[in-house]
Amino acid sequence: MNEHASVDLHVIDLSAEADSDDQLPLVVIHGLLGSADNWRSHLKVWQRRRRVIAVDLRNHGRSPHVEGMSYTAMSQDVLVALDKRGVERAHMLGHSMGGKVAMTLARMAPERCASLMVADIAPVAYQHGHDDVFAALARVKEAKPANRREADTLLAEHVDFRPTRLFLATNLVRNEQGEMAVRVGLEEIQRGYEAIIGRPDGDQSYDGPTLVLKGADSHYVTDDMLPALREVLPRARIVTLKNAGHWLHADQPEAFQQAIDTFIDAHS
Hints:
This protein has 268 residues and is of the alpha/beta class.
């Protein structure tokens, strides 16, 4: 399959619980090895006031496994998912790899973005940094553990940090044989890894309202990256969340939710 052919993404689409002056939905795009399911607690909060749409990117969650992890392809997948649901314009929120997807979408189709929110990622190329988690998931895939305890033991052969193992375990599902299986397209993701750690696609800047949230304890958005960030996102307001790392939405959920709500309210 050509990587630029769109993929029919799995989507969580939640209607607003109350009438709101802002009728535009919020679109949430997860990071590498994440899924829409990881965001359910946040989705329920945002759903109180607006429609919320969370996607599983290709090779993640319940979406199909295909070759190609370019940001052009992934952003096009998201646009097709929105087209199918009649969404012409929305507030876009992306975390980590999902932030680069959101940036690419905003650069290539700015008319679709009412605002852009990027969580703890910059529009730069990063160094290799996921060999351990790939090896951990491959070990589980090979060993076919009978339960999550056995799976955690296998993951621990490559990943010491328990919170990371718990995050990786969200990608495990029980198959028809009763074994714990890895649901992500691991090989496809690994083959597309150079694109994932690279810069977001697109040639022009996104001139719409933009919020960049960074974790105070994270190294993903550093001062030396700010010139590149300003070049791509000239209107970006940068906010640092205290006592938060790269998974800032999990480390400081209430502060994260409040920052997103305040920003959307200011640009509705």
